[in-house]
Amino acid sequence: MTKPVYVLNGPNLNRLGKREPEIYGHVTLAEVEALCTEAAGSVGLVFRQTNSEEQMIDWIHEAIDGSCALLINPAAFTFYSMAIMDALKMYPHPLIEFHITNVHRREPMYHNSLVSGVATAVMAGTGTRGYGYAVKLLLEMAADKVAA
Questions:
Q1: Separation of alpha carbons 17 and 15, rounded Å
Q2: pTM above 0.70, yes or no
Q3: Domain 5-147 class in CATH
Q4: Helices marked H in the chain — which ranges?
Q5: Contact, 96 vs 116, CB < 8 A?
Q6: Is 96 annotated as belonging to a binding site?
Q7: Which of the following is catalytic: 6, 91, 93, 99?
Q8: Fewer Cβ within 10 Å of end Cβ, the chain: N or C?
């Protein structure tokens, strides 16, 4: 694989380690990026975070042609952004929707994802360590797709 894995993070994830640590833990987004970079190895990684729906859509469009796989933690965009869902529908490679917490154990407003229906797989409830697992899984999925 010559194209990198993209990891895109939605609103408020720049506050990891400070925002509700009793729910999200004390690991910072910079530490998550280091974990993902290590997991991606020689394939490479593009790691980004935005609080802007417009920016997220632009990055998804970029990833369509510029990546081998996509890990997205859409955060609040998960539950209301049809625009992000539509952009992800165009993504032709393995795509994992990721959530640090198990959204299904939380309040009902967190139970209906617009992204899940277009994702290849969904990971939730593994904490920040799950980012590394997800990147490794995406690399396997991308390799299987190339071999198919």
A1: 6
A2: yes
A3: alpha beta
A4: 21-24, 29-40, 53-66, 82-89, 130-147
A5: no
A6: no
A7: 99
A8: C
